[in-house]
Amino acid sequence: MQEKERILLLQIKCDLFDSFEIIPDQLDFDFYLQKMKNIFQKYFSINDFHLIIHKRLFLENQYMFTVLTGENISYLEDWQALSYFSDTSSDRDHLESPFEKKFLLKDLKGDLNGVIVLQFADHDEYSFYSDDFWDACATIGYQYLKNVIELIVVQLRNKQLETLQKAARQINATLDVKRIFSCLFTALRDLYPHSLFRIYITHDEWLDKELPILFLDFSSDKSPEIDAFKTGEIKRREANDSLYQFLYIPLKGRQGIYGVLEVATSNGELFGREDIHFMSRLSDITSQAIENAQLYQESKKWIKNLQIVTEVSRHLNTKLRVLDIGEYFIEELKRSFDAEGVAICLKVGDATKVFDSSSPYFFTISGKGLLNFINRLIDKGREGILVGDLSRDATTNYGICSLMSAPLKQENNIFGFICIVDHRSYHFTFEEFKLFQSLSHHAALAFINAMLRDELEKMVITDYLTKLATRTYLDKKMEESMSNDRKGAFILIDIDNFKRINDRYGHQVGDQVLQQIASIIKSHLYGTDIAARWGGEEIVVYLPNRGLQEGLELAEQLVRRIEKETRPQATISCGVSSWEEGTRDSPRKLFRRADKALYQAKALGKNRAMAYTGP
Fold first, then answer.
1. Would you say 520 and 558 are in contact if contact means Cβ atoms under 8 Å apart?
2. What is the pLDDT of residues 310-320, one digit of tens each?
3. Of 291, 537, 563, 565, which one is the catalytic site residue?
4. Active site residue 537
């Protein structure tokens, strides 16, 4: 190499590296390439200058494609590199017009990373310099470009880190999943403006018309997004027309996978390792934020559900009657689940009784059919029923879509069930179903307590043998009636010759006769009528708001029926008295008058009814 060539090389090298400056956030490769072109034009009569760069640079950073774009840059594949391994000093045969000179940009291993091609104004100018000179120029150019690329990579990674930190702050500052997705898209588009993004999700409540979010279609098992979702691994795919490449990154949290991020880029761009690492970290941050938001929302739901259960349980415990519990619980279920229809059914023997306060639908033909359908399932041991769209099956089309039902149980004994319906399909969520089951359990306990209380009260006010009311209960009801009603009739009944029945047939048969007579008497009672065992073989019937004549007619009916229907045959004698509003009367006086009438019936031969007509 001649001395003047060495001096020229030194000048080119000094100018190149003197012009190399670090500008923060300067990621424009063309900026530095233009400086290189200007310096070469300073020393040579160059008309055009073009860089052909190897695509392997993008294997680390796909973002380099964004900054290495311009009319002065092309790309080199491996198979194309061989055509440039000819002598650097020659010839136009290896170059497309109008370029005449090439610099092979090689690393220390001799691998070709790119080519600079030149067009001279004077076509013979490049021949004025030796091949060693041009080889040295190529080395200087490669060092300069290598420094530029390394600088851009450093600044790119800084930008990635800044973008990641900014996105993390924004994402972690919200518990709104849609806002989290919006921050994710903003960060990706800021760094990769030439790529396309969308997210496949598993929760339809996260759908947003303003964002590229789709519901994950599990019916397509072979789709790459489903594959990424199932395996939790990053997947790649190339479009059939080879115009786009796709990357699928699962949004994977500690407790599950919440969706898949799809990245699409043109085939000229490659997904570099650093790009995949950046997107993966951003996806991890997003996934953790989604998980935190979901846990927060679930905790809010649990707190709300706990408040509902506590409040309902408190109200149920204040209700002492079965009917009151049913009325309250039906209205509470309608309110809590925004339901159109609620029914409570209790089993009474072999029959199932629907609460009168249940929604009107359940008293229609369709509603009754649905309750029978549920009753059969409950009897078969179903712990609960949740159906999103009952109308899809023609055999279970009862005019509604959404259904929840749960049995009412005491240990293993099912004594009824609760049913909630709505015409809107999939109106009830699984979380709501779990809350419904919890509320049903509390309702079952309230019903059991109320029924036990009713049974205990009934035991206190009911005669064990005849199942008629006790004398104490009768006295209480008579006093209430004489304070509030306008009149009342009192029938005192005595079994004729009852001692003879006991002596002849035994006391067990005597008890059976008492039970038969009590059953006949109860079959004649209506509304607030009361029958009570007065003592021994004496029974009393009190008829609120009935007069003396009505009492006597009932007594005569009882005399006839008892004589006809009892086995062994028994007869009764009845004394009837009454009171009317405006008289100073009492249960004791009423009894005395009826007892006098009974005495007359006995004196006249028994097996008859007499009304008290005295003063």
1. yes
2. 888 888 777 77
3. 537
4. yes
